[in-house]
Amino acid sequence: MSIPTWTPPPAQPPPAPPAPAAPTGDAAGLDRTIFVDSTAVAGAGAAGAPAGAPSLAEGELVIASGPDSGHSFKISGPAIRIGRAPDNDLVLRDPATSGHHARVERRGNQFYVVDLGSTNGTLVNGEVVMERELKNGDSITIGQNAVNFAVH
In the chain, which ranges are E strands? Predict the structure, then answer.
């Protein structure tokens, strides 16, 4: 007497993943991204901010004297780095400026200057600082450049 041998059932292909539902009607092929021009919103205040919303001050650095005098730089982001190296946001071309000399940061509606370990230091109104809140009209000395800070 022979014992029947077990044989596995034939292999089944794995089930196909479900296809994404196709949009129907007018939604087919539409990009649902919405762009709004905040300057066109009724009741918008200065710089397109809604009425009653606080607006952020704009800072500007104006190089008053030194090798780079006559140039100005608007502070548009949260921080700018200043120094002699070409990867800085504001590049000063004088040998008394360190490669990465200082940073000007926005903290809310205030601006601060932070020395980045420069060789010759960073001065605000003639005083050596490691970090200092800037006020409208302050003079920052970076290397041989006198840089005036203004808030608009």
Answer: 59-65, 72-75, 79-83, 90-91, 102-107, 110-115, 122-124, 127-129, 131-134, 139-142, 145-151
The candidate with the shortest Cα–Cα distance to 118, out of 131, 108, 109, 105, is 131
pLDDT, greater one: 16 or 95? 95
In Å, how far from its chain's centre is CA 139? 24
Report residue 106 as tokens: 């926005």
Contacts 24+ apart (CB under 8 A), 71-75: 75/104, 75/106, 75/111
Q: How many Å is the maximal CA-CA distance in the chain?
A: 110
Mind listing the pLDDT tens digit for each residue in 24-53? 555 555 555 555 554 444 444 444 455 555
User: How far, in Å, CA of 43 to CA of 31, rounded?
Assistant: 29
The answer, as to whether pTM is greater than 0.70, is no
